[in-house]
From TrEMBL, chain B:
<dbReference type="InterPro" id="IPR007419">
    <property type="entry name" value="BFD-like_2Fe2S-bd_dom"/>
</dbReference>
<dbReference type="Pfam" id="PF04324">
    <property type="entry name" value="Fer2_BFD"/>
</dbReference>
<feature type="domain" description="BFD-like [2Fe-2S]-binding">
    <location>
        <begin position="485"/>
        <end position="539"/>
    </location>
</feature>
<dbReference type="InterPro" id="IPR041854">
    <property type="entry name" value="BFD-like_2Fe2S-bd_dom_sf"/>
</dbReference>
<feature type="domain" description="FAD dependent oxidoreductase">
    <location>
        <begin position="84"/>
        <end position="432"/>
    </location>
</feature>
<protein>
    <submittedName>
        <fullName>Glycerol-3-phosphate dehydrogenase</fullName>
    </submittedName>
</protein>
<dbReference type="InterPro" id="IPR006076">
    <property type="entry name" value="FAD-dep_OxRdtase"/>
</dbReference>
<dbReference type="Pfam" id="PF01266">
    <property type="entry name" value="DAO"/>
</dbReference>
<dbReference type="InterPro" id="IPR036188">
    <property type="entry name" value="FAD/NAD-bd_sf"/>
</dbReference>
<dbReference type="InterPro" id="IPR052745">
    <property type="entry name" value="G3P_Oxidase/Oxidoreductase"/>
</dbReference>
Length: 410, 573
C-alpha cells in the first residue's frame, strides 16, 4: 500500500495550488485527477480575466492552468491521472480506494485535501416541467462541447440564469454564429459578475430579462420551444404573463453544487448555506481532523484567484497538521447576522495566531454597507460602497487569538 | 347492466350526440363531446356492460392529432421475408414473448417503430414486482401477477439481471386500519398472496424512519424490485442470442388476410409474411387491433409521474413503503416510496387520465402532490434530493384488465393488450402463456420442434458497480477500459459503454446506452459525461457527430463541428 502525507483529490486550480504549497512546505503530495489532464474546468474557459488578483495579468483559463502545471511538472509531486476515487475510509489514517486502468488500489494518507469542485444544477432541480428532449445543456457542458470538442450545440438559444458561465456562453455561442434570444433570470438582480453582464451581454446586444423564469419545455425529440413566465419578488408566477418562445437550445446557468458526496460518506455535515463542509480557518473540517477542503468544493467562488488561494491555505495547514501532530482544533463559531448569505470559514481555531482570511457574500444588494466586526469587546468597522450576492468579498483579520468573533452587516 | 339502460345513461350523463353501436362484441361509442373527461366517463360507463370491451372512438373539441410515427424511413429491407411469428412491439411483453418462443425452432421477428428496446412504458415505471394484492380477484391481472412474481428468481438468474425480493410494507393510520384491513386480508387470501399483519412496534423495527403516526400495516414478503429497462433488454438480448430478429423503425401499415387469417403485413420496410401475428404494441395495441380487423377495446393512456431521489436517500428505507389511501375504485397502483435496485428512492407514480398516448410531459401539480404525499410518510425526504422526474403512460382498457387471447376473428392473431400495471410483474407468466397459445396456432399449420441450440442463459456484460473488488480487478486486468470511469455519479466505465455499443442489439443513442448502463442517470444528469459519450459513440461506430442522437429521430445533440475544416470547407476554397 502506497503511503502519502497529503492526498489531494481533484487537480483543478484549488488542487494544483494545494499540491504546490504542500511541496513547498516539504511534505509529499499526491494529486488524484479523474481526467486526462490537470486543470479542471479551467481547460474549457478560453475567455480571459483569470489571474488578475494572483498574477496581475489577464489570463485565459488554459493559460492560468498552464502556469501551475509547468511549475508542478518540475516538483516532486505525484500525479495520478484518469483515476477515480471510489471511497474513503478512516481509522488512524485515511484509506483511499481508487480505480484506474491498473485496477483497484488502496492508498494510505495522513491528510486528505478535497478540491473536488462543483457540478451544475439541472433543469429538474429547479423544477422545470414539460418534456425531456435533446438540446437542454448545462452551461458548463455546452462550454465543454464548444471549446474543447469544437461543436455547435445550438443555433437559436435561450439562456436561463445569469450565472457567469451562462453569460460567458451567451457571448461564446454568439461568436460561433448562434443567435442568443435572451438571458432569463428569476431574480430581480443578475447572478453573475457585473463585468460579465457588460462584456458578454450588452456588448453583443443580448437582452437580459430579470424576474422571469422558464416554466415548461416543449418538443419531443429536440427542444422546440419554452414557456416563459414573469415572476414577482417571491418568485411566484404572475398570471397571464406566459409567453412561448421558439428555440432549439436551452442553456442552463442556474447554480453550482459543491461535489461533497465523498465527504458525506465519511459522515461530514453539509452547511446548507454554502453547500460545503463546516471548516475552521485552517480550512480543516471541524468534524474530522485531517480533512481539508478548498476551492469550489467548499463554497462557490466567483474568481479562480480565490480558489487557488484557498488551496494554498489548505495545503499549508495540512502540512502544519502533520508536523505538529495536532489533534482537534479548538473551534468557535463565527457569529454573523442575517444579512450575510454565508461566511467561510464558519469557525475559527482559538489557538490560531495567523491572520485569518474570510470569504463572504451578502444576502441582498446593499449600497453603502457597513460591516462591524466584534472581537471580544473591540469593534472594527469596514465600509463597502456596494455589496451584491453575485460578488464575493474577502476580508482579512489579524490578532484573533483566543477571541470571540461576531460580525454584523448593515 | 341492461344494454338499453346503459345507452340511456351514457346519453343522459354525457351527451345525446353519442352514437352507440355494437361491433366485434364490444360497445362502440362515436361522436364528439366537449372534453376529455367526458370521453373517459362515457367509456367507463360503457365498460359496465357484459360485452368484451369498449371501442371508444369519441373525440373532443380541440383534440390534437398525435403523431406517433417519427420516421419517414421507407426501404425494402424486410420485403418478402418469411417468418413464423411477428411480434409488434419491443417492450417487456414483446421481448419476453420473443425470448420464450426462441425455445422453438421457428423464425421470429420483433418490430418496433422506435429505434431501441423499452422506449415507452417499459422504461417509464418504477420497476416494482408487485405481489398481486391489488388486482381484483378473478381477473387476468391477479392471475398473471401472482404467477409472474414467483418466476422472477428464475428469470433473473437465467437472464442475468438484478432482482431483489425486498418485501414491501403497506401502512395505515388509525382510520384506514379499521376499515380497510379486513378488505386487504380477504383480497390477499383470494389472490393467493401471503401477508403478515405488523403492529406499530414491528413497523418501527422494519422501517425505523417512517412516520410514527402510522399505527399498523401489512408486510408482504414477496414484493420485489428490478430495473425495468435493463430487464427488458436482458429478455431481448437473450432472444437475439437464440436467433430472434429485431427490426427497429419499423411499423405496421396494413395486413393482408385470407380466410380470416393474416398472410402478410405491410410495413414501411416492406411486405413480411407470417404464420402468426402477436400484438404487444402497448399503448398503441388498439390501433394495431383495428388495422388487423379485430378491435374490441380502446387504450386510454393513464399517466403516472415518478420522482427519482439521490442515492444518498437510499438508507432512509429498506424496501417499498406505501401508505394506503386504498381507494377501492382505483384502477391502478397508488404509488409508494420505492428503493430501487440501485438504491435510489423513487416516489410515485401518481395516476391520471390524459388524452395523448405519448405525452410524457411532467406537471408541477403532479410533482408537488407526489412529494407532499410521500414526505408525510418519510419526513427525511426533501426537495433538494430530487435528481429528476419523468412520466409514463399505462396502457389501460376500459375493462381495466389484461387482454391475453387468440383472436376469435382472425385465427392467427394474438392480443396481448391492456398490459398496464402490474405488467412488469406479470411479464414472465404472460410470456410463457402466450408461448403456448402461439405454439398451438403454429402446430395446427406446420410441424415445429424445439430449438436444440436454445440457451436460456444470457451472459450480459460486466456491471462494474455490482462486482467485488477482486472481480473488478480481474476484469480491468483483462481489459483496462473497465478501469476508466466515464460517468462519475453512477461509476460507469468506458469498458461497459463499449460493450453495450457492440452488444447484439447495439446501443448507439445516448438514451439507449443509458438504459443499458445507467450512464448519465446520476445526480449530475449527464452534465459531465454527455460530451464524452458523444466521442465514444463516434469513435466506436463512426457515426458523424452531427448525426448522433439522444433518443428518437430528430433528437440530434449538436449542429455542426466548428473547429474542423470539413470537406465542404475545402471544396468552397
Amino acid at each position: 500500500m502506497k503511503e502519502y502525507e497529503v492526498i489531494i483529490i481533484g487537480g483543478g486550480p484549488a488542487g494544483m495550488a494545494a499540491a504546490l504549497k504542500v511541496n513547498n512546505e516539504g511534505c509529499k503530495a499526491l494529486i488524484i485527477e479523474r481526467e486526462e489532464r490537470l486543470g479542471g474546468i479551467l481547460k474549457q474557459c478560453i475567455h480571459d480575466g483569470f489571474g488578475v488578483l494572483k498574477f496581475n495579468e489577464r489570463l485565459t483559463g488554459p493559460e492560468y492552468a498552464l502556469k501551475y502545471k509547468n511549475i508542478i511538472k518540475n516538483k516532486d509531486i505525484d500525479i495520478l491521472l484518469k483515476t477515480f476515487v471510489i471511497e474513503i475510509k478512516k481509522d488512524k489514517d485515511f484509506h483511499i480506494k481508487i480505480i484506474n486502468e491498473n485496477g483497484i488500489h488502496i492508498l494510505k494518507t495522513k491528510t486528505v485535501i478535497f478540491s473536488t469542485g462543483c457540478r451544475e444544477r439541472t433543469s429538474k432541480q429547479i423544477f422545470i416541467q414539460g418534456e425531456r428532449p435533446a438540446g437542454i445543456y448545462n452551461a458548463g457542458t455546452a462550454q465543454y462541447m464548444t471549446n474543447i470538442m469544437g461543436f455547435m450545440p445550438g443555433k437559436n438559444c435561450i439562456i436561463l440564469g445569469s450565472g457567469d458561465i451562462g453569460l460567458i456562453m451567451a457571448r461564446r455561442l454568439t461568436l460561433e454564429g448562434a443567435k442568443v434570444l435572451g438571458v432569463y433570470e428569476i431574480k430581480d438582480t443578475p447572478s453573475g459578475l457585473t463585468r460579465n453582464i457588460r462584456q458578454c451581454l450588452y456588448d453583443y446586444d443580448i437582452p437580459l430579462y430579470l424576474s422571469h423564469s422558464i416554466t415548461k419545455i416543449f418538443g419531443k425529440e429536440r427542444i422546440e420551444a419554452v414557456e416563459i413566465s414573469k415572476v414577482n419578488k417571491n418568485y411566484e408566477l404572475i398570471e397571464n404573463s406566459k409567453k412561448i418562445i421558439k428555440c432549439d437550445t436551452l442553456i442552463l446557468s442556474v447554480g453550482l453544487i459543491p461535489e461533497n458526496e465523498l465527504l458525506e460518506d465519511l459522515g461530514i455535515t453539509i452547511d446548507k448555506k454554502t453547500n460545503g463542509a463546516f471548516v475552521d480557518n485552517d480550512f480543516m473540517s471541524v468534524e474530522i481532523p485531517g480533512i481539508f477542503i478548498c476551492g469550489n468544493a467548499l463554497h462557490v467562488n466567483d474568481l479562480v484567484d480565490y480558489v487557488s488561494e484557498s488551496g494554498e491555505i489548505a495545503g499549508k495547514k495540512a502540512c502544519e497538521y502533520i508536523k505538529n501532530k495536532k489533534t482537534n482544533n479548538k473551534n468557535t463559531k463565527v457569529d454573523i447576522n442575517e444579512n450575510f448569505l454565508y461566511i467561510v470559514p464558519q469557525y475559527i481555531n482559538e489557538n490560531s495566531n495567523d491572520e485569518i482570511i474570510f470569504y463572504f457574500r451578502s444576502k441582498k444588494r446593499f449600497e453603502n454597507a457597513k460591516l462591524k466586526i466584534f472581537l471580544d469587546d473591540k469593534i472594527v468597522e469596514k465600509n463597502y460602497n456596494k455589496l451584491i450576492p453575485a460578488e464575493m468579498e474577502k476580508l482579512t483579520i489579524k490578532n484573533i487569538k483566543n477571541k470571540k468573533i461576531s460580525m454584523i452587516l448593515e | 347492466m341492461n344494454i338499453q339502460k346503459l345507452k340511456n345513461k351514457i346519453k343522459k350523463d354525457i351527451s345525446y350526440d353519442i352514437d352507440i353501436s355494437i361491433q366485434n362484441n364490444a360497445l362502440k361509442l362515436e361522436g364528439v363531446v366537449e372534453n376529455w373527461e367526458q370521453v373517459i366517463k362515457a367509456g367507463k360507463i360503457a365498460a359496465m356492460s357484459d360485452f368484451d370491451g369498449v371501442i371508444n372512438n369519441l373525440k373532443f373539441i380541440n383534440q390534437e392529432k398525435e403523431n406517433f410515427i417519427n420516421t419517414d424511413l421507407k426501404d425494402n429491407k424486410l420485403n418478402n421475408k418469411k417468418y413464423d411469428v411477428i411480434i409488434i412491439g419491443a417492450g417487456i411483453i414483446g421481448c419476453s414473448i420473443a425470448r420464450e418462443l426462441s425455445k422453438w425452432n421457428i423464425k421470429i421477428l420483433v418490430i418496433d417503430k422506435e429505434n431501441d428496446i423499452a422506449v415507452h412504458t417499459s422504461s417509464r415505471n418504477d420497476g416494482m414486482i408487485h405481489p398481486g394484492l391489488s388486482p381484483k380477484p378473478g381477473t387476468k391481472k391477479a392471475y398473471y401477477n401472482v404467477l409472474g412474481n414467483k418466476l422472477y428468481e428464475k428469470k433473473s438468474k437465467e437472464l442475468n439481471f438484478e432482482f431483489k425480493r425486498t418485501g414491501s410494507l403497506i401502512v395505515f393510520d388509525k382510520w384506514h386500519l379499521k376499515f380497510i384491513s379486513p378488505f386487504i386480508k380477504l383480497r390477499a387470501k383470494k389472490n393467493g398472496v401471503y401477508l403478515k399483519y405488523v403492529d406499530k412496534k414491528q413497523i418501527n423495527m422494519i422501517e425505523p424512519n417512517i412516520d410514527k403516526n402510522l399505527i399498523g400495516g401489512f408486510l408482504i414478503p414477496s414484493t420485489g424490485i428490478i430495473s425495468p429497462y435493463k430487464t427488458t433488454i436482458a429478455y431481448a438480448e437473450n432472444a437475439v442470442e437464440n436467433g430472434v430478429d429485431i427490426s427497429f423503425e419499423t411499423f405496421l401499415k396494413d395486413v393482408y388476410k385470407e380466410n380470416n387469417e393474416v398472410v402478410y403485413i405491410e410495413t414501411n420496410r416492406g411486405r413480411i409474411f407470417t404464420k402468426c401475428l402477436i400484438n404487444c404494441a402497448g399503448v398503441h395495441s388498439d390501433e394495431v387491433a383495428e388495422i388487423v380487423g379485430d378491435r374490441f377495446y380502446t387504450i386510454h393512456p393513464r399517466k403516472g409521474e415518478i420522482i427519482i431521489l439521490d442515492k444518498k436517500t437510499g438508507n432512509f428505507i429498506n424496501s417499498v413503503v406505501s401508505k394506503t389511501d386504498f381507494n377501492l375504485k382505483n384502477n391502478s397502483k397508488g404509488g409508494g416510496i420505492i428503493k430501487t435496485v440501485e438504491e435510489n428512492l423513487l416516489l410515485g407514480p401518481n395516476a391520471y387520465e390524459q388524452p395523448y398516448k405519448e405525452d410524457y410531459s411532467t406537471t408541477s401539480k403532479g410533482i408537488n402532490e407526489i412529494m407532499n404525499k410521500h414526505s408525510s410518510v418519510l419526513k427525511q425526504i426533501n426537495k433538494k434530493d430530487i435528481i429528476t422526474y419523468f412520466s409514463g403512460t399505462r396502457a389501460s382498457t376500459y375493462k381495466e384488465d389484461f387482454i391475453i387471447k387468440q383472436s376469435s376473428k382472425i385465427s392467427n392473431f394474438i392480443h396481448v393488450s391492456g398490459i398496464q400495471s402490474p405488467g412488469i410483474a406479470s411479464a414472465p407468466s404472460i410470456s410463457e402463456d402466450v408461448e403456448k397459445i402461439t405454439i398451438n396456432i403454429l402446430k395446427s399449420k406446420t410441424n415445429i420442434n424445439q430449438n436444440i441450440k436454445y440457451n436460456p442463459n444470457r451472459k450480459g456484460y460486466p456491471i462494474l458497480y455490482l462486482l467485488e473488488d477482486k472481480e473488478k480487478n480481474r476484469i480491468i486486468n483483462k481489459n483496462p477500459d473497465f478501469g476508466k470511469i466515464v460517468c462519475r455519479c453512477e461509476m460507469i466505465s468506458y469498458g461497459e459503454i463499449k460493450s453495450v455499443i457492440h452488444s447484439n442489439i447495439p446501443a448507439i443513442t445516448l438514451d439507449a446506452i443509458k438504459r443499458r448502463t445507467r450512464v448519465g442517470m446520476g445526480r449530475c444528469q449527464g452534465g459531465f459525461c454527455t460530451p464524452l459519450l458523444l466521442k465514444i459513440i463516434h469513435e466506436e461506430t463512426g457515426i458523424e457527430y452531427e448525426k448522433i442522437l439522444k433518443k428518437g429521430l430528430g433528437s440530434n445533440l449538436i449542429f455542426k463541428e466548428t473547429k474542423k475544416f470539413g470537406d465542404d470547407f475545402i471544396e468552397r476554397i
